Amino acid sequence: MNLLEVSGLTKTYGTNHAVNAIDFHIAGGEIFGLIGPNGAGKTTTLRIISTLLSKSSGEVKVCGHDVQTDPHEVRRSISYLPEEAGVYKNLKGREYLEFIAGFHAEKKERPAMVERGMSIANLGARINDKVSTYSKGMTRRLTIARALMMNPKLAILDEPTSGLDVINAHEVRNIIKKSISERSAVLLSSHNMLEVDYLCDRIALISGGVIVETGTPDSLKEKYQCSNIEEIFMKIVETLSHADEPDKKRD
Amino acid sequence: MLMNLIKKEIKELLTPSTVAVILVITVLFGSMGKLIGAAKDEAKKKPTIAIVIKEKGPLADRLREFLRTKTTLIYEGDSREEGFAALKASKKGVALVIIDQGFEKTLLAGKPALIKVEWIMRGAGLMDTISSGILERTFLDLNKQISAHLIDATKDKGDLSSSHVLNPTVKFENTHYKSKRIPALSPNKIAQVLVSQSITIPMAVMIIIMLGGSMVITSMGLEKENKTLETLLTMPVSRTTIVMGKIMGSAAVGLFMAAFYMVGFKFYVSSFETGTIDLALLGLDLNAFDYILVGVSLFSSLLFGLAMAMLLGIMAKDYKSAQVLTYPIMGLAMIPMFLTMYRDFDTVTPLVKTVLFVIPFSHPMMAMRHLTLDNYLLVSLGIVYSLTVTAILIAIIVKIFKTDKLITGIMPLRKRA
Ligand SMILES: Nc1ncnc2c1ncn2[C@@H]1O[C@H](COP(=O)(O)OP(=O)(O)OP(=O)(O)O)[C@@H](O)[C@H]1O
Ligand SMILES: [Mg+2]
User: Fold this and answer.
1) B344 in the same domain as B201
2) Best probe residue, ligand 1, of A12, A19, A35, A42 (max atoms within 8 Å of C-beta)
3) What is d(CA A5, CA B312) in angstroms, rounded to the nearest whole number?
């Protein structure tokens, strides 16, 4: 059974189609990457799957549960990491993990979950410091740890490595890769094409709210005769330029 | 370059919400001015009184004539009871003045004569005792009339001492303040004792509500800015739990604040008891149960403030926009603050009464005064009302939490791009 099934998903803001009739699915054991430029509709898609946003039309099912009609069951199966997520500044790293574990485990199981979180975050003694003293990379490791420590069936990570230096990004990628099992999956977004090439089993290229291509990185490289995803993306966007809708950012 | 910076700064600061706040405050102060203008009018008006003058003779006629010109008489007769009843029935009546038979005889015998005054005190707000203040000054003039009469009457004999002639009467006064009868004091003297409470309590209540409210709004703003709210909303907990958690958490802090307020307040009140007038002797003190009721009243309206803050906090986009959103709460708390400072609940028009009752923040501001007069009903009603409105607000908030308004934001004034 697929852990995630998305079909005909559409989200409109006024007349703006943020996401326009997209279809994809994720099976157990997969890391799935949603790749696209700024304003492509990645965050919107992830938020709908995470039960944060209502959809305009289409269907989204997580582990067989509909996000619209059965959000509580969906929330039991997922773990969502928002783009640039922060932490309550007055908490210590460990306290934050304990706080989150309180939602996901019975009292007995919490210490083990927090222990797992601490080993994922790998912050050493600093885990007992206030989060307000953490660097960006440390905060990201902590939030990744809290998203993965409960072994969610579907982890939804919005740009997990954005804004991190090469070493930190590399480490976060390894953490994600290690977290996956046969019965779980990861859905992540990125606009770093090289990263998804390394990390993802399958990818979907999204632009202007439309998925323009799906497949494994290798199959896509073969199909378009390119050595990396970036080139493929440029090629596709050029050929589709008539259907392209540029990002209409307000403010 | 400077112009460029100034322009940017003005653009940042002069948002629709700040303009709205400034407008509200202007209107508020405008209406305050009206209220104070009304006070001026009242200060010019003659006090309304009832008189029972049993004394006969030229002096009595002179005094009656004097009072007729200086006051508005609603009763002039022989019965104390009737006079007092007429006074009570009229909304503006201030005092019943009684001059007994033998008044002039006592005076001529060189003894001070008695003027009995039964005051009616209608409220302890700053503006409630204007009328009785005027009457007190009228009594000074009345004494001058008596002095003049005595000088004329004893011109040839001159056997009265000058101090007696200049100070011919003693006042025997009682004040009826709602159900209480306070001996030997005029409303003005009582108001002097209560006036510091009239000012301090509403201000303290407003500060507590402001603190609690901005606590919640700021936390909502921060949660949105840090995306911790998004994280929280994807956890497998009911939306009601999330909303209640936030409100009850801040309410716990609020309870703490309310407790400190009551302790500080007890000290504040007891500092008056060492002064010239003992509130306990006046029957205007509070017992332990009263203090608890004041605390509960404060807490229930604080709960309303927190729920309102949370509703406003939904509109906050980040920490900065959260700050401005505390102003509606401040505005709503300022209205009863000023109103209760100037007037007692009982002495305002039905419209103002309704406004006061509807704003839950009024109730703790008025609770103390109501309880000194044993008006438990109004305080309890206030508590029940505040809790009911809070429950409704929480239901609305939970409803909004179940939609995606928290993420997309509520933007009623969205401009078209
Ligand atoms: N609350 C909103 N109201 C109106 N339009 C919105 C709202 N949120 C997002 N959009 C629009 O939806 C489109 C998709 O936005 P989304 O945030 O999903 O993009 P993204 O792919 O995550 O971009 P980025 O890489 O910059 O994070 C954009 O055009 C954006 O302007
Ligand atoms: Mg995004």
Assistant:
1) yes
2) A42
3) 36
Residue A249 has pLDDT above 50, yes or no: no
| Half-sphere exposure in the Cβ direction for A40 (13 Å, CA) | 20
Q: How far apart are CA A62 and CA A71, in angstroms?
A: 9
B121 vs A54: CA distance, rounded Å: 61
**Domain count along chain A:** 1
Q: Give tens-digit pLDDT for B376-400.
A: 999 999 999 999 999 999 999 999 9
Taking an 8 Å cut-off on Cβ atoms, the answer to whether A78 and B234 are in contact is: yes
Atom of ligand 1 nearest to the CA of A247: 29
pLDDT digits (tens, 9 = 90+) for B211-246: 889 889 989 989 998 899 999 999 999 999 999 999
Instruction: Let me know if residue B320 belongs to a domain.
Output: yes
Q: How far apart are CA B236 and CA B171, in angstroms?
A: 75
Based on the domain organization, do B213 and B180 belong to the same domain? no
Establish if B326 belongs to a structural domain. yes
Is the pLDDT at A243 greater than 80, yes or no?
Answer: no
A45 CA → ligand 1 middle, Å: 10
Please report the pLDDT score of residue B397 as a whole number: 95
- pTM for the complete prediction? 0.83
C-alpha B191/C-alpha B372 separation (Å) is 13
Question: Which residue's CA lies nearest to atom 13 of ligand 1?
Answer: A18
* B215 lies in the same domain as B359: yes
Q: What CATH code is carried by the domain that includes residue A75?
A: 3.40.50.300
